[in-house]
Amino acid sequence: MNDINVGQKIQEYRKKKGLNIRQLADLVVVTPSLLSQIERGIANPSIHTLKLIAKVLEVPVFNFFLEQENTKNLIVRSNHRKKMILPESEHLSYELLSPDLNGAIEYALMKLTPGTQSSEALMEHLGEEAAFILEGEVQLYLNDEIHILSKGDSVRIPPHIKHKWKNTFDQNVVVIFAVTPPSF
Fold first, then answer.
1. Rounded distance, CA 112 to CA 146, Å?
2. pLDDT at res. 1
3. Can you give the residue ranges of the HTH cro/C1-type domain (predicted)?
4. What is the arithmetic mean of pLDDT over 76-95?
5. Could you give the C-alpha distances from 46 to 26, 30, 35, 70, 172, in angstroms and in order?
6. Is 1 inside any structural domain?
7. Which is the most buried residue in 2, 84, 171, 180, by most CB within 10 A?
8. pLDDT (average), residues 42-64
9. Domain boundary at 23, 44, 65, which?
10. Domain end residue (candidates: 65, 86, 113)
């Protein structure tokens, strides 16, 4: 594990809040000199001072100890996507376009061959979904309504709206969608 510069993290969050050192020091009830030394790594804050700083900056204390994310883990190469092919239909597949499900949003790709659908019954989930038709035409069931979407069309599906995708056409359908929170 690399050394984590708590002072640098405090400085980053302070600047995001638009506070200068004196303003934060006044709100935390420490001297600007001490806060400056903490930010430069010359002095170590007490747990009590860290809690006060976190409260004023409106971040959990543990955020000061998080390592910066390795940017290599943020990229998904097309030949390394996580894929899910459902046992009941080898003609329906999902590919996770996000690196994982740890973020606040999931980004995925769905492929439907002619005559297939995303599910037998209409499904719903807690989160919101947005989708873009990359290829083909598809029927989108939204509650009791059926809509035909074509290449270039998009849709937002609010939470708890029952829906499913059905390819009744003679060409493959590719849909890119985002869901929050992740539920792949």
1. 17
2. 41
3. 10-64
4. 79
5. 17, 11, 12, 29, 61
6. no
7. 180
8. 88
9. 65
10. 65
CB count within 10 Å of CB 103 equals 13
Kindly state the tokens that stand for 3. Answer: 């050394």
Domain that holds residue 59: 6-65
Tell me if the pTM is above 0.85.
no
**20, 34, 57, 133 from 17: Cα distances, Å:** 9, 19, 7, 39
The pair of structure tokens assigned to 35 is 């806060």
Q: Which amino acid is at 129?
A: E
* Tokens read off for 79: 């030949």
* Short-list 173, 175, 168, 136, CA closest to 154: 175
Instruction: State whether 41 and 115 are in the same domain.
Output: no
User: Which tokens in the block code for residue 17?
Assistant: 């809040």
Do 47 and 77 lie in one domain? The reply is no
Contacts of 56 by beta carbon, 8 Å cutoff, 6+ apart: 24, 27, 28
**Looking at the structure, do residues 137 and 157 belong to the same domain, yes or no?**
yes
Q: Could you tell me the strand order of the sheet in which 92-96 lies?
A: 82-85, 92-96, 106-112, 173-180, 128-135, 154-157
